[in-house]
Design brief:
four-stranded antiparallel sheet, alpha+beta
């Protein structure tokens, strides 16, 4: 059976937008891998051995401060890929890449990606568009971390996590969120309590249920919508 000109059935959106012939060239070098919560794909300053195209898992990009403190600056899900520096001719990662849960991704060696990138104008176009969206997310996250209170930052982070959760309920501990947002655990506890008091979420022992998505988006100000719209616009 002939495949359609584009392959929307592929879970990763970046791969799914490629023309059939371009995807088929890549497919021979793609391996389906399972990532687990807390798995480090690579550390900052290390060579990028593989690129990852997430299917149903979320990957945090973290910047390190003083060698041990980490702050989340971006999230990568099924809309994109992990390992974008290779597309810019850089073979070392400036950030730590950390799996946010268990799920699958398509993995390819750096060498095969670089060859495919050189040979496919369509892949180059899609990756460059994604890099633009990733840069917008990095900028918006920096602004949010600087100017918004913890409650708004937490609302944005929960919405982004919910976009990749299989239901309205998912697991994120206070300790984990505090690390990702670069705040003390007590700050996350107070912010989560405030959102719960507004009936936007229910939070108990790390189990989060979003009760009012539109209300949570309002609590996040414009940050979440800007990132989401930029990601959607690249298509």
């Amino acid at each position: 059976m002939l495949m359609p000109a584009h392959t929307p059935q592929i879970a990763n959106h970046l791969l799914a937008t490629l023309p059939r012939k371009d995807y088929q060239r890549l497919h021979a070098h793609l391996d389906l891998v399972t990532l687990t919560l807390g798995e480090v794909l690579y550390e900052a300053g290390e060579p990028i051995q593989h690129v990852y195209f997430p299917n149903d898992v979320l990957v945090s990009l973290l910047t390190l401060v003083e060698g041990h403190l980490a702050l989340e600056v971006a999230l990568v899900g099924r809309e994109g890929m992990v390992g974008t520096p290779l597309a810019l001719g850089i073979d070392e990662s400036p950030l730590r890449a950390l799996a946010q849960g268990s799920g699958t991704a398509m993995r390819m060696t750096a060498a095969h990606f670089q060859k495919g990138f050189r040979d496919s104008p369509s892949l180059r176009r899609e990756v460059y568009c994604y890099i633009h969206a990733l840069m917008a997310q990095l900028a918006q996250t920096a602004a949010c971390n600087r100017f918004h209170v913890v409650e708004a930052r937490l609302a944005r982070r929960l919405l982004m996590a919910a976009d990749y959760a299989p239901s309205h309920t998912f697991h994120l501990t206070h300790e984990f969120l505090a690390s990702m947002l670069g705040v003390r655990r007590v700050g996350v506890t107070k912010a989560a309590h405030a959102l719960q008091q507004q009936n936007l979420i229910n939070y108990s022992r790390g189990e989060i249920t979003i009760l009012d998505r539109s209300g949570l988006e309002a609590a996040a100000y414009s940050c979440y919508k800007i990132v989401r719209n930029t990601t959607s616009a690249k298509r």
